[in-house]
Design goal:
- The protein is α+β, with helices and mostly antiparallel strands and 385 residues long.
- It has a domain of 163 residues: Beta-lactamase (3-Layer(aba) Sandwich), CATH 3.40.710.
- Helices cover 30% and strands 16% of the residues.
- The strands form four sheets. It has a seven-stranded antiparallel sheet, with helices on both faces.
- β2 and β3 form a beta hairpin.
- α2 runs parallel beside α5.
- The longest helix is centred in the N-terminal third of the chain and has 15 residues.
Length: 385
Protein backbone atom coordinates (compact mmCIF):
# COMPACT_ATOMS: atom_id res chain seq x y z
CA UNK A 1 0.00 0.00 0.00
CA UNK A 2 1.03 3.62 -0.49
CA UNK A 3 -0.92 5.12 2.39
CA UNK A 4 2.24 6.91 3.54
CA UNK A 5 2.55 9.07 0.43
CA UNK A 6 -0.41 11.30 0.99
CA UNK A 7 -3.98 11.26 2.25
CA UNK A 8 -5.32 12.05 -1.22
CA UNK A 9 -3.86 8.89 -2.73
CA UNK A 10 -4.99 5.29 -2.35
CA UNK A 11 -4.21 2.03 -4.06
CA UNK A 12 -1.29 -0.32 -4.36
CA UNK A 13 2.18 -0.58 -5.83
CA UNK A 14 3.98 -3.90 -6.11
CA UNK A 15 7.32 -4.17 -4.27
CA UNK A 16 9.94 -2.26 -6.19
CA UNK A 17 7.44 0.14 -7.77
CA UNK A 18 7.00 2.43 -4.76
CA UNK A 19 8.65 5.29 -6.67
CA UNK A 20 5.62 5.48 -8.92
CA UNK A 21 3.42 6.01 -5.88
CA UNK A 22 5.72 8.74 -4.68
CA UNK A 23 5.66 10.47 -8.06
CA UNK A 24 1.86 10.19 -8.20
CA UNK A 25 1.51 11.77 -4.76
CA UNK A 26 3.97 14.50 -5.75
CA UNK A 27 1.74 15.34 -8.70
CA UNK A 28 -0.89 16.44 -6.18
CA UNK A 29 1.47 18.08 -3.72
CA UNK A 30 3.71 19.87 -6.23
CA UNK A 31 2.21 19.86 -9.73
CA UNK A 32 -1.40 20.91 -9.29
CA UNK A 33 -3.13 17.60 -9.89
CA UNK A 34 -6.83 17.66 -8.92
CA UNK A 35 -8.06 14.14 -9.68
CA UNK A 36 -6.26 11.30 -11.41
CA UNK A 37 -5.47 7.60 -11.65
CA UNK A 38 -2.54 5.56 -12.94
CA UNK A 39 -2.51 1.84 -13.72
CA UNK A 40 0.39 -0.28 -14.96
CA UNK A 41 0.60 -3.94 -15.96
CA UNK A 42 3.85 -5.80 -16.57
CA UNK A 43 3.58 -9.27 -18.04
CA UNK A 44 -0.16 -9.18 -17.44
CA UNK A 45 0.26 -8.52 -13.71
CA UNK A 46 -0.87 -5.27 -12.08
CA UNK A 47 2.14 -3.54 -10.54
CA UNK A 48 0.62 -0.08 -10.03
CA UNK A 49 -3.01 0.76 -9.31
CA UNK A 50 -3.46 4.22 -7.80
CA UNK A 51 -6.22 6.80 -7.62
CA UNK A 52 -6.28 10.17 -5.97
CA UNK A 53 -7.94 13.51 -5.54
CA UNK A 54 -11.32 14.70 -6.64
CA UNK A 55 -13.72 14.09 -9.52
CA UNK A 56 -15.02 17.66 -9.39
CA UNK A 57 -13.54 21.10 -8.91
CA UNK A 58 -15.37 21.66 -5.62
CA UNK A 59 -13.61 18.70 -4.08
CA UNK A 60 -16.77 16.95 -2.94
CA UNK A 61 -16.57 13.74 -5.02
CA UNK A 62 -13.52 11.54 -4.44
CA UNK A 63 -11.86 9.91 -7.44
CA UNK A 64 -12.42 6.15 -7.33
CA UNK A 65 -11.14 3.16 -9.26
CA UNK A 66 -14.18 3.21 -11.57
CA UNK A 67 -14.21 6.96 -12.23
CA UNK A 68 -14.39 7.76 -15.93
CA UNK A 69 -13.01 10.92 -17.50
CA UNK A 70 -12.66 12.41 -20.97
CA UNK A 71 -9.26 11.20 -22.23
CA UNK A 72 -9.18 13.28 -25.42
CA UNK A 73 -6.73 12.00 -28.06
CA UNK A 74 -5.96 8.82 -26.15
CA UNK A 75 -9.04 7.71 -28.08
CA UNK A 76 -7.15 8.02 -31.37
CA UNK A 77 -4.99 5.06 -30.38
CA UNK A 78 -8.06 2.98 -29.52
CA UNK A 79 -9.77 3.84 -32.81
CA UNK A 80 -6.62 2.99 -34.75
CA UNK A 81 -6.63 -0.49 -33.23
CA UNK A 82 -10.18 -1.01 -34.49
CA UNK A 83 -9.03 -0.08 -38.00
CA UNK A 84 -5.92 -2.28 -37.83
CA UNK A 85 -8.10 -5.21 -36.80
CA UNK A 86 -10.02 -4.81 -40.06
CA UNK A 87 -6.72 -4.90 -41.93
CA UNK A 88 -5.77 -8.08 -40.06
CA UNK A 89 -9.10 -9.60 -41.02
CA UNK A 90 -8.56 -8.82 -44.72
CA UNK A 91 -11.55 -6.47 -44.82
CA UNK A 92 -9.28 -3.53 -45.62
CA UNK A 93 -5.69 -2.97 -46.60
CA UNK A 94 -3.60 -0.01 -45.53
CA UNK A 95 -3.65 1.18 -49.12
CA UNK A 96 -7.39 0.76 -49.65
CA UNK A 97 -8.85 4.06 -50.88
CA UNK A 98 -11.34 5.29 -48.32
CA UNK A 99 -13.77 6.01 -51.14
CA UNK A 100 -13.96 2.29 -51.92
CA UNK A 101 -15.89 1.75 -48.68
CA UNK A 102 -17.27 5.29 -48.36
CA UNK A 103 -18.05 6.50 -51.89
CA UNK A 104 -19.17 9.97 -50.82
CA UNK A 105 -15.67 10.68 -49.53
CA UNK A 106 -14.37 10.87 -53.11
CA UNK A 107 -15.80 14.40 -53.49
CA UNK A 108 -13.39 17.13 -54.60
CA UNK A 109 -10.62 14.80 -55.69
CA UNK A 110 -10.28 12.73 -52.51
CA UNK A 111 -10.88 9.42 -54.30
CA UNK A 112 -7.26 8.29 -53.90
CA UNK A 113 -6.85 9.08 -50.19
CA UNK A 114 -6.05 5.79 -48.47
CA UNK A 115 -6.53 4.28 -45.04
CA UNK A 116 -2.77 4.67 -44.52
CA UNK A 117 -3.02 8.38 -45.37
CA UNK A 118 -5.78 8.83 -42.82
CA UNK A 119 -3.95 6.95 -40.07
CA UNK A 120 -0.81 9.09 -40.45
CA UNK A 121 -2.64 12.43 -40.78
CA UNK A 122 -2.03 12.91 -44.51
CA UNK A 123 -5.68 12.66 -45.61
CA UNK A 124 -5.97 16.41 -46.21
CA UNK A 125 -9.11 17.00 -44.14
CA UNK A 126 -8.02 18.26 -40.69
CA UNK A 127 -10.99 20.64 -40.78
CA UNK A 128 -14.54 20.65 -42.12
CA UNK A 129 -15.38 23.62 -44.34
CA UNK A 130 -19.19 23.66 -44.00
CA UNK A 131 -20.40 25.64 -40.94
CA UNK A 132 -21.62 23.33 -38.20
CA UNK A 133 -23.25 23.77 -34.79
CA UNK A 134 -22.70 22.02 -31.49
CA UNK A 135 -26.00 20.22 -32.00
CA UNK A 136 -24.34 18.50 -34.96
CA UNK A 137 -21.83 16.83 -32.64
CA UNK A 138 -24.52 14.35 -31.65
CA UNK A 139 -25.50 13.65 -35.28
CA UNK A 140 -23.02 11.17 -36.75
CA UNK A 141 -24.48 11.32 -40.24
CA UNK A 142 -24.36 15.11 -40.28
CA UNK A 143 -20.71 15.21 -39.19
CA UNK A 144 -19.49 12.52 -41.55
CA UNK A 145 -21.46 13.87 -44.52
CA UNK A 146 -19.97 17.32 -44.00
CA UNK A 147 -16.50 15.80 -43.75
CA UNK A 148 -16.95 13.76 -46.91
CA UNK A 149 -18.15 16.84 -48.81
CA UNK A 150 -15.17 18.96 -47.73
CA UNK A 151 -12.62 20.08 -50.28
CA UNK A 152 -9.21 18.88 -49.08
CA UNK A 153 -6.77 21.42 -47.67
CA UNK A 154 -3.77 19.59 -49.15
CA UNK A 155 -2.87 16.39 -51.00
CA UNK A 156 -1.35 13.41 -49.17
CA UNK A 157 1.91 13.86 -51.07
CA UNK A 158 2.24 17.40 -49.72
CA UNK A 159 2.79 16.45 -46.09
CA UNK A 160 0.77 15.99 -42.94
CA UNK A 161 -1.40 18.04 -40.58
CA UNK A 162 -2.72 16.65 -37.33
CA UNK A 163 -6.41 15.80 -37.76
CA UNK A 164 -7.17 16.95 -34.23
CA UNK A 165 -10.88 16.21 -34.26
CA UNK A 166 -11.77 14.98 -37.75
CA UNK A 167 -9.58 11.88 -37.29
CA UNK A 168 -12.40 10.30 -35.29
CA UNK A 169 -15.16 10.88 -37.80
CA UNK A 170 -12.89 9.99 -40.73
CA UNK A 171 -11.72 6.62 -39.43
CA UNK A 172 -14.81 6.01 -37.34
CA UNK A 173 -16.89 6.13 -40.52
CA UNK A 174 -14.49 3.69 -42.20
CA UNK A 175 -15.14 1.31 -39.29
CA UNK A 176 -18.89 1.85 -39.59
CA UNK A 177 -18.95 1.32 -43.36
CA UNK A 178 -16.99 -1.94 -43.11
CA UNK A 179 -18.60 -3.44 -39.99
CA UNK A 180 -22.04 -1.83 -39.86
CA UNK A 181 -21.28 -0.82 -36.27
CA UNK A 182 -20.84 2.62 -34.78
CA UNK A 183 -17.35 3.08 -33.31
CA UNK A 184 -18.64 3.00 -29.74
CA UNK A 185 -20.47 -0.25 -30.34
CA UNK A 186 -17.43 -1.79 -31.98
CA UNK A 187 -15.16 -0.62 -29.16
CA UNK A 188 -17.37 -2.17 -26.50
CA UNK A 189 -17.53 -5.46 -28.40
CA UNK A 190 -13.74 -5.64 -28.16
CA UNK A 191 -13.17 -3.97 -24.80
CA UNK A 192 -15.80 -5.77 -22.71
CA UNK A 193 -14.24 -9.26 -22.93
CA UNK A 194 -10.86 -7.92 -21.80
CA UNK A 195 -12.33 -5.85 -18.96
CA UNK A 196 -11.26 -2.54 -20.49
CA UNK A 197 -13.38 0.34 -19.20
CA UNK A 198 -13.19 2.58 -22.30
CA UNK A 199 -16.10 4.16 -24.18
CA UNK A 200 -17.48 6.41 -26.87
CA UNK A 201 -21.09 7.35 -26.21
CA UNK A 202 -21.98 6.85 -22.56
CA UNK A 203 -25.16 5.32 -21.20
CA UNK A 204 -26.92 6.35 -17.99
CA UNK A 205 -24.80 4.04 -15.83
CA UNK A 206 -21.55 5.45 -17.15
CA UNK A 207 -22.71 9.07 -16.95
CA UNK A 208 -22.93 8.74 -13.18
CA UNK A 209 -19.27 7.75 -13.01
CA UNK A 210 -17.82 10.74 -14.87
CA UNK A 211 -15.34 13.19 -13.44
CA UNK A 212 -15.65 16.81 -14.51
CA UNK A 213 -12.87 18.20 -16.69
CA UNK A 214 -11.23 21.34 -15.33
CA UNK A 215 -9.41 23.53 -17.86
CA UNK A 216 -6.42 25.46 -16.50
CA UNK A 217 -6.51 28.10 -17.65
CA UNK A 218 -10.03 28.15 -19.01
CA UNK A 219 -10.08 28.25 -22.82
CA UNK A 220 -12.66 30.72 -24.17
CA UNK A 221 -14.09 30.18 -27.62
CA UNK A 222 -12.48 32.39 -30.26
CA UNK A 223 -14.05 35.78 -30.76
CA UNK A 224 -13.51 35.62 -34.53
CA UNK A 225 -15.61 33.55 -36.92
CA UNK A 226 -13.17 30.89 -38.22
CA UNK A 227 -14.80 31.14 -41.66
CA UNK A 228 -13.68 34.78 -41.90
CA UNK A 229 -10.04 33.71 -41.87
CA UNK A 230 -8.05 32.52 -44.86
CA UNK A 231 -5.61 29.78 -45.78
CA UNK A 232 -3.75 27.93 -43.05
CA UNK A 233 -5.27 30.14 -40.34
CA UNK A 234 -8.75 29.13 -41.44
CA UNK A 235 -7.80 25.45 -41.58
CA UNK A 236 -6.41 25.61 -38.06
CA UNK A 237 -9.38 27.50 -36.61
CA UNK A 238 -11.99 25.32 -38.28
CA UNK A 239 -10.18 22.18 -37.19
CA UNK A 240 -10.53 23.20 -33.58
CA UNK A 241 -13.79 25.19 -33.60
CA UNK A 242 -16.14 23.92 -36.34
CA UNK A 243 -18.45 22.97 -34.68
CA UNK A 244 -17.57 25.46 -31.91
CA UNK A 245 -17.36 22.65 -29.36
CA UNK A 246 -15.45 20.18 -31.55
CA UNK A 247 -12.46 20.31 -29.18
CA UNK A 248 -14.84 20.13 -26.18
CA UNK A 249 -14.80 23.81 -25.23
CA UNK A 250 -18.04 24.85 -23.63
CA UNK A 251 -19.56 21.37 -23.82
CA UNK A 252 -17.12 18.96 -22.17
CA UNK A 253 -19.02 18.29 -18.96
CA UNK A 254 -22.48 18.17 -20.52
CA UNK A 255 -24.60 15.06 -20.88
CA UNK A 256 -24.93 15.68 -24.63
CA UNK A 257 -21.14 15.61 -25.09
CA UNK A 258 -20.72 12.47 -23.02
CA UNK A 259 -23.47 10.65 -24.90
CA UNK A 260 -22.13 11.69 -28.33
CA UNK A 261 -19.51 9.80 -30.32
CA UNK A 262 -16.61 12.07 -31.23
CA UNK A 263 -13.93 9.36 -31.25
CA UNK A 264 -10.84 11.56 -31.66
CA UNK A 265 -11.83 13.77 -28.76
CA UNK A 266 -14.51 12.52 -26.37
CA UNK A 267 -13.45 9.00 -25.47
CA UNK A 268 -13.99 8.27 -21.79
CA UNK A 269 -12.06 5.76 -19.75
CA UNK A 270 -10.45 4.78 -16.49
CA UNK A 271 -6.70 4.35 -16.07
CA UNK A 272 -7.13 0.61 -15.72
CA UNK A 273 -9.33 0.54 -18.83
CA UNK A 274 -6.70 2.28 -20.93
CA UNK A 275 -3.89 0.10 -19.57
CA UNK A 276 -5.81 -3.15 -20.07
CA UNK A 277 -6.61 -2.18 -23.66
CA UNK A 278 -2.93 -1.62 -24.43
CA UNK A 279 -1.96 -4.83 -22.64
CA UNK A 280 -4.40 -6.66 -24.89
CA UNK A 281 -2.97 -4.98 -27.99
CA UNK A 282 0.45 -6.54 -27.37
CA UNK A 283 -0.87 -9.88 -26.13
CA UNK A 284 0.12 -9.25 -22.51
CA UNK A 285 -3.23 -10.19 -20.97
CA UNK A 286 -3.24 -13.86 -19.91
CA UNK A 287 -5.83 -15.86 -21.80
CA UNK A 288 -6.29 -13.29 -24.57
CA UNK A 289 -4.71 -13.21 -28.01
CA UNK A 290 -3.23 -9.89 -29.17
CA UNK A 291 -5.90 -7.54 -30.47
CA UNK A 292 -3.70 -6.87 -33.51
CA UNK A 293 -1.18 -9.23 -35.07
CA UNK A 294 2.24 -8.38 -33.68
CA UNK A 295 3.76 -7.80 -37.11
CA UNK A 296 1.07 -5.33 -38.14
CA UNK A 297 1.28 -3.55 -34.80
CA UNK A 298 5.03 -3.21 -35.16
CA UNK A 299 4.47 -1.73 -38.61
CA UNK A 300 1.89 0.70 -37.21
CA UNK A 301 4.26 1.77 -34.44
CA UNK A 302 7.08 2.91 -36.74
CA UNK A 303 7.29 6.41 -38.21
CA UNK A 304 5.23 6.72 -41.40
CA UNK A 305 5.17 10.50 -41.74
CA UNK A 306 7.83 12.91 -40.53
CA UNK A 307 7.98 16.67 -40.87
CA UNK A 308 6.56 20.00 -39.80
CA UNK A 309 2.90 19.95 -38.75
CA UNK A 310 1.08 23.26 -39.25
CA UNK A 311 -1.55 22.30 -36.67
CA UNK A 312 0.85 21.37 -33.87
CA UNK A 313 3.40 23.98 -34.92
CA UNK A 314 6.44 21.70 -34.68
CA UNK A 315 8.28 18.81 -36.28
CA UNK A 316 6.20 15.67 -35.66
CA UNK A 317 6.49 11.95 -36.37
CA UNK A 318 3.28 10.00 -36.93
CA UNK A 319 2.79 6.25 -36.97
CA UNK A 320 -0.39 4.58 -38.17
CA UNK A 321 -2.80 6.09 -35.69
CA UNK A 322 -0.52 5.44 -32.74
CA UNK A 323 2.42 7.64 -31.81
CA UNK A 324 5.87 6.06 -31.91
CA UNK A 325 8.17 6.85 -29.03
CA UNK A 326 10.33 9.83 -29.98
CA UNK A 327 12.96 12.02 -28.37
CA UNK A 328 10.34 14.78 -28.14
CA UNK A 329 7.76 12.55 -26.46
CA UNK A 330 9.50 9.44 -25.11
CA UNK A 331 7.44 6.48 -23.96
CA UNK A 332 9.94 4.71 -21.75
CA UNK A 333 13.24 3.33 -23.00
CA UNK A 334 12.22 0.86 -25.69
CA UNK A 335 12.38 2.05 -29.32
CA UNK A 336 9.33 -0.14 -30.01
CA UNK A 337 7.00 1.58 -27.53
CA UNK A 338 3.85 3.20 -28.90
CA UNK A 339 0.69 4.82 -27.64
CA UNK A 340 -1.14 8.13 -27.68
CA UNK A 341 -1.22 11.20 -25.47
CA UNK A 342 -4.40 13.18 -24.85
CA UNK A 343 -4.83 16.90 -24.30
CA UNK A 344 -3.66 17.84 -20.84
CA UNK A 345 -1.51 14.77 -20.28
CA UNK A 346 -3.72 11.68 -20.34
CA UNK A 347 -1.75 8.79 -21.80
CA UNK A 348 -1.98 5.16 -22.81
CA UNK A 349 1.00 3.25 -24.16
CA UNK A 350 2.56 -0.18 -24.50
CA UNK A 351 6.18 -1.30 -24.37
CA UNK A 352 6.32 -4.69 -26.13
CA UNK A 353 9.90 -5.35 -25.00
CA UNK A 354 8.98 -5.01 -21.32
CA UNK A 355 5.50 -6.52 -21.74
CA UNK A 356 4.27 -3.29 -20.17
CA UNK A 357 1.01 -1.37 -20.52
CA UNK A 358 0.41 2.05 -18.97
CA UNK A 359 -2.73 4.12 -18.40
CA UNK A 360 -2.90 7.56 -16.82
CA UNK A 361 -6.02 9.74 -16.76
CA UNK A 362 -6.76 13.02 -15.03
CA UNK A 363 -9.27 15.88 -14.99
CA UNK A 364 -7.08 18.98 -14.51
CA UNK A 365 -6.19 19.79 -18.10
CA UNK A 366 -2.99 21.77 -18.60
CA UNK A 367 -1.71 22.79 -22.05
CA UNK A 368 -0.43 20.23 -24.53
CA UNK A 369 0.07 16.49 -24.27
CA UNK A 370 3.29 15.77 -22.48
CA UNK A 371 3.20 17.22 -18.98
CA UNK A 372 5.42 17.23 -15.92
CA UNK A 373 2.89 14.85 -14.35
CA UNK A 374 2.96 12.02 -16.89
CA UNK A 375 6.71 12.53 -17.37
CA UNK A 376 7.30 12.02 -13.62
CA UNK A 377 5.21 8.83 -13.64
CA UNK A 378 7.00 7.35 -16.65
CA UNK A 379 10.43 8.19 -15.26
CA UNK A 380 9.60 6.63 -11.90
CA UNK A 381 8.19 3.52 -13.59
CA UNK A 382 11.25 2.90 -15.70
CA UNK A 383 13.54 3.45 -12.73
CA UNK A 384 11.81 0.44 -11.18
CA UNK A 385 12.16 -1.93 -14.15
Amino acid sequence: MVADVGALVSGECAPGFEAVGEAFAANFAERGEVGAAVHVLVGGQVVVDLVGGWANEAGTRPWTADTLVNVYSVGKGLLSVLVLQLVDAGLLSLDTPISSVWPEFAAHGKERVTVRDALCHRAGVPAIREPLTDADLSDWERMTSALAASEPWFAPADGHAYHTNTFGHLLGEVVRRVTGQMPGERLREIAAPIGADVWWGLSDAELARCADVIWAPARPLPGVDPHSLEGAAQMLALGYFNPPGYSSQGVVNTEAWRRAQVPATNGHGSASGVARFYAAVIGALPGHAPLVSLGLMAEAARVHSDGFCPVLGEEVQFGLGVTPTTARRPLGTSPRSFGHFGTGGALGFADPDAGLAFGYVMNHVIPRWQSSRNRALIDALYSAL
